[in-house]
Design goal:
Helix content: 25-40%
Strand order of the largest sheet: 1-3-4-5-7-8-9-10
Number of strands: 11
Bound molecules: iron/sulfur cluster
Order of helices and strands: HHHHEEHEHEHEHEHHEHEHEHEHE
Strand content: 5-15%
Number of helices: 14
Length: about 375
């Protein structure tokens, strides 16, 4: 395993992810019986902390007949912790430059698409367009090109964006610990970094070139973020690449590992399913909507504090139905191409989205269901 100097000090989650473990986990999950599912749900009803084995039971095929019960339990626990609120955010794509080849992504270096990186004036135009829609929370997204969109570029962009938004999260390439410290000083409150798959061998098959092919460096990123003092980290895997149950289990295991190491940090989880994009991208392990509901409910029953985020990759109908069953934040009116809010040029987009409603329509749907829209990240006093 590769080791980088700034993560030598302590136990790392990457030491807990081996090939033998993956195979064992996959067969353990498939072998779970209904008794274990019932036991996990009984513990939840008694407000006891669930173990990773309980989580395994909840995502197993044996839990499928319990879906209705799981949904009710997930709703109960979410309302208890977060009230009837949904936070709205929007991704702001600053660049589609990328030095990696990832087989499932429209921004992959080998794809012959037009590349662009927003300059300061363009960033300001995007910020104004997004702010005019009511958003106070923005998620900055870029491809992974250290040369074109490195720390100096980010600092320049943040200098502008701070004028418009009260909460800024980032989903960019993994950075060094001292770079995360610099971002924190520029007002970044959260870093999202998805492992895509925790299957070591298959990871290499999907990440053919560039820095992203270093499995361990990516996996250790949340630990560098935590040590740098950033308050929140988002985890997840790309559902559809490998067996979703095993990947989802590793996400839960990493979450629990990080909670122990960084007890004051907040965490969020996302559930991106593979979407069509430029250059293709095969869905090797399809996941049905019913299975996605099962997974979302399982995460909530396993962990009551974690924020669960659902993007516009999913359909309007699915998002409407899931809103009350465990989700705490949603994106709305997303554009996945740089400059997309001020100038909607689809030839630059990373992937196509499924829920094309305007932010007003999404906000109205949330209100109609008796929920309150939260326009910026959670604050003390907004939650009971
Ligand atoms: S997934 Fe990220 S790193 Fe990979 S090609 Fe797309 S933008 Fe680049």
């Amino acid at each position: 395993m590769s080791k980088h100097s700034d993560e030598m000090q302590q136990d790392s989650f990457s030491d807990h992810v081996g090939m033998a473990d993956w195979q064992r986990m996959a067969s353990d999950i498939n072998a779970v019986d209904e008794n274990s599912v019932a036991q996990a749900l009984t513990k939840s009803r008694a407000n006891q902390r669930l173990s990773l084995d309980d989580f395994k039971a909840l995502i197993s095929p044996a839990a499928a007949p319990y879906l209705e019960y799981m949904a009710a339990e997930s709703q109960r626990l979410t309302q208890q912790r977060f009230g009837k609120t949904i936070q709205l955010f929007v991704p702001l794509y600053l660049s589609n430059m990328c030095s990696n080849i990832c087989t499932y992504c429209g921004f992959s270096m080998e794809n012959k698409i037009r590349r662009t990186t927003l300059n300061v004036e363009q960033i300001r135009a995007e910020a104004q367009a997004i702010r005019a829609k009511g958003f106070e929370h923005v998620l900055i997204v870029t491809g992974e090109s250290e040369r074109k969109v490195g720390i100096e570029y980010f600092e320049q962009a943040l200098g502008v964006l701070k004028e418009y938004f009260s909460h800024i999260a980032m989903e960019v390439q993994p950075l060094k610990e001292d770079e995360y410290r610099r971002l924190h000083q520029f007002g970044v409150e959260a870093i999202l970094v998805y492992q895509e798959t925790y299957h070591r061998e298959k990871y290499a098959k999907y990440h053919l070139k560039g820095k992203k092919s270093d499995f361990d460096y990516r996996l250790q990123t949340p630990e560098r973020v935590g040590r740098a003092g950033i308050n929140k980290v988002g985890l997840g895997c790309l559902l559809g690449l490998e067996d979703w149950r095993t990947d989802a289990f590793y996400v839960a295991k990493q979450l629990r590992f990080l909670e122990k190491q960084f007890w004051s940090m907040k965490f969020s989880l996302a559930f991106p399913r593979l979407r069509p994009c430029e250059g293709g991208g095969e869905v090797n392990s399809p996941m049905s909507e019913r299975e996605l509901v099962q997974l979302i409910c399982a995460y909530r029953i396993f962990n009551q504090q974690v924020e669960l985020s659902l993007s516009t990759r999913e359909s309007a109908v699915f998002r409407n139905n899931m809103m009350a069953l465990g989700i705490t934040s949603m994106s709305a009116e997303s554009k996945t191409q740089p400059g997309g809010y001020a100038n909607d040029d689809k030839s630059l987009e990373q992937f196509s989205i499924d829920d094309n409603r305007s932010v007003d329509e999404v906000a109205q749907m949330i209100t109609d269901k008796g929920y309150q829209v939260v326009w910026k990240d959670w604050q003390q006093g907004l939650v009971s």
